Amino acid sequence: xxxxxxxxxxxxxxxxxxxxxxxxxxxxxxxxxxxxxxxxxxxxxxxxxxxxxxxxxxxxxxxxxxxxxxxxxxxxxxxxxxxxxxxxxxxxxxxxxxxxxxxxxxxxxxxxxxxxxxxxxxxxxxxxxxxxxxxxxxxxxxxxxxxxxxxxxxxxxxxxxxxxxxxxxxxxxxxxxxxxxxxxxxxxxxxxxxxxxxxxxxxxxxxxxxxxxxxxxxxxxxxxxxxxxxxxxxxxxxxxxxxxxxxxxxxxxxxxxxxxxxxxxxxxxxxxxxxxxxxxxxxxxxxxxxxxxxxxxxxxxxxxxxxxxxxxxxxxxxxxxxxxxxxxxxxxxxxxxxxxxxxxxxxxxxxxxxxxxxxxxxxxxxxxxxxxxxxxxxxxxxxxxxxxxxxxxxxxxxxxxxxxxxxxxxxxxxxxxxxxxxxxxxxxxxxxxxxxxxxxxxxxxxxxxxxxxxxxxxxxxxxxxxxxxxxxxxxxxxxxxxxxxxxxxxxxxxxxxxxxxxxxxxxxxxxxxxxxxxxxxxxxxxxxxxxxxxxxxxxxxxxxxxxxxxxxxxxxxxxxxxxxxxxxxxxxxxxxxxxxxxxxxxxxxxxxxxxxxxxxxxxxxxxxxxxxxxxxxxxxxxxxxxxxxxxxxxxxxxxxxxxxxxxxxxxxxxxxxxxxxxxxxxxxxxx
Length: 671
Hints:
Shape: globular
Low-confidence stretches: 1-24, 156-177, 287-298, 327-333, 360-369, 490-497
Distance between the termini: 94 Å
Strand content: 15-25%
């Protein structure tokens, strides 16, 4: 019986699902095309009419027959229209008794509308509009709407993007360097990248991962080689491939993408729970047997995916170093970025190959005792703390406000306090051994373990004042922004604290409500007033007759927070910023939507720009040849650069002070 009913039920469901879809099917389908070069382009909207339908023309038949088709362009596109809309096709006419025998024009097979676009005042445009059309089927009249959208990028004789020399679309100095110089600079950047928080935090994961895999020194050397090669291949090929396909901002967007950060959060949470002993992350035994039979193929792929995790997680910190190389790749220069990415990944892989060898040494020191499990559990606590950082990144981007600063700190305080208690031997997990006993049979704590416990409790005590607004500069790069805390010390951030606001300069207004919670702690502490919009800040700089400092930053930019905590907080730097500059913080990862009239297509990013963050990233890429943060540019009132190159991440206070002084001196020369 069931065999008979099952196909009948499936057929009935299919009919139910198909009927409403078929009823909603539109009688006309559309194709949008573009063609042209130079300043003049042509948009073609072609309508293909299904048999038995009449599509009415765009001709206005008057009040007696208000059934003509209308093509309406949005306000931004209307400014670019040239001449009137033209209609071509096999038009037919007849009198329609429904409308007092008015003569109407219609099409029964196809019709094409053509509109000229003038790009003389711009180099790209996103043309949007709606086709509102009437169709007669038999004796029934129906009207429909069809939105359309087409992106036009002005072509040049060379077939590429036009570069304005006065704006410096590319980093010309980098482009003209020799390949050896690029390799050495990228190699040095790779060594520095190891010391950044995102990369350094992966070291515990690496040690734990290879502790299980390297049973002897020979296998440890093989695993280290696999790991190093995997890092080099992934960074060199995957990074370049993503950039060529999705544009130079793709890697930076991955680091700030809320879905990617939730994936990283889940990954670190699973690692942490596993290290605490809840379960073991292992392949099924059948998979293990097959891998052994194939001479370690599974072993390589396991190491490869471990290297892939390192590459993905480290993008937010390595991006500032490789950003310029990726911009060059998007402009069609392949050899330079390939060499640079190879040098960068080679330097990054060298230290990790040593870390990959380290587990083999751990195993050779002795397998008796539970100290190896203690290391594993300690790593579990650290993974839980790092998981919260990625959850915080997603929380900040989406504006959920689940992990405000005080909540994040409370969780970290509890995690590190429990870690200290564990190191003292007061908490036991499933695989833990008892503490060793002394000559009198009494369990004792080793001096090494005691010192780790002291360090953990000291760090916990350091974080506690942060619950009441202490800046905590040592870890501020990991914490949510100061402005997300619900209770903060009063004072500090008033307009009177910035000298140029006493001269009649308009204070910041645009995006203040949305972005002020993300202001750095040092900005609030010293009362530095920063703008959040480029045009508003430029007008203020012209009024105050001061140089403009562009601070390309991000909500989740760890190196930006480190730069602010270590460099901006210096009295010498802060005094110059407050007295001699107008500062604008341009957040490249905010999701504030742009009005439709301000949307445009970015050749540098290779995408439509419809958020404030993308607008500022386009500004950085198109004018200054970089998509990395932090990145500082100094301009005069005519938008000309006051220094030949931008200033990136460099924690040296003296270098930044010297750079500011050089900018001030150059600005005074131009007055």
